Amino acid sequence: MHSIFHMFSGLLLLAAAFGYLNHKFMHLPRTIGMLIGALTLSAGMIVWDAVFPGFLVRPWAQQLLEQVSFPAALLNGALSFLLFAAALSVSFSDLWNRKGTIIVLATIGVVISTVLMGGAMWLVFGVVGLNVPLIWCLVLGAIVAPTDPIAVGAALERIGLPTELRSTIAGESMLNDGVGVLLFTLLVGVATSGASDVSLGHFALLFLYEAFGGVLLGLAGGYIAYRAMRAIDEHDVEVMISLALVTVTYSAAE
Question: Rounded CA gap, 202 and 100, in Å?
């Protein structure tokens, strides 16, 4: 029986190995290098099982992964630190100066991306002979439409874009997830129960609750941590305040 600590130690080992190989040989963006490393490892395990059927690696890995809920561990643990790290590289004043553009991209832009992605998938499914309703293609489009703030932040570090454009792209990538989740919720409701059973008023209220409530909670927690750090000059305590800010605010939002 493996503990969560053993699981994450193995993941950190793989991440370090993939990161080293990517930096040494492939020179790709970190997120892309990690993805290629994971895909290569998965394909290698499948090939190993086919060539050496007596040494079944894939069932062992599957049994290992079933012991821990990785979606829960990621969403309720690691994601808070990843988002915090991405947000640290963005200037709040730059975001505020471009708030109109960022809000439009994070809302209308996500809706347009969802429609385009869902429509394209519906056409592709039709070409290959799969009868997938358009509404479910739009649900899938809502899942993939929002950009990943961690991946965007890593890519912006390697590209020499103007500061204004970098701030706009980074701000949009951090705000579009909430819109994507709410759009996904609305589309799933339409797909499962029909449009007549879905209240747009409830959807709008949920959007205000999640979006503005999250902003107010983040500003309150950040201001308290900021004032606490300004009152002291002790690096160890400042690190603990930062960690508490990430974990407590994320837990309160949950």
Answer: 25
Report yes or no: 20 and 28 within 8 Å, Cβ to Cβ: no
DSSP designation for 194: -
Percent of the chain predicted with pLDDT > 70: 88
Percentages helix, strand, coil for the chain (3-state, rounded to 5) are: 85, 0, 15
186-217 pLDDT, tens digit per residue, is: 888 788 876 555 566 777 787 788 778 888 99
Query: Residue 137 class from Cβ within 10 Å (0-12 exposed, 13-18 middle, 19+ buried)?
Result: buried
Q: Name the token pair of 39.
A: 């895909």
Q: Rounded to an integer, what is the distance from CA 226 to the centroid of its chain?
A: 26
pLDDT tens for residues 71-93? 676 667 777 887 787 778 777 88
Query: Considering the entire predicted model, what is its pTM?
Result: 0.65
Dig out the tokens for 116 from the structure: 């385009």
Q: How far apart are CA 199 and CA 53, in angstroms?
A: 54
The label of the residue with tokens 């992964």 reads 65
Q: Taking each helix axis from N to C terminus, what angle separates 58-65 and 30-51, rounded to the nearest 10 degrees?
A: 130
Question: What does the radius of gyration of the chain's CA atoms come to, in whole angstroms?
Answer: 21
Cβ(56)–Cβ(222) under 8 Å? no
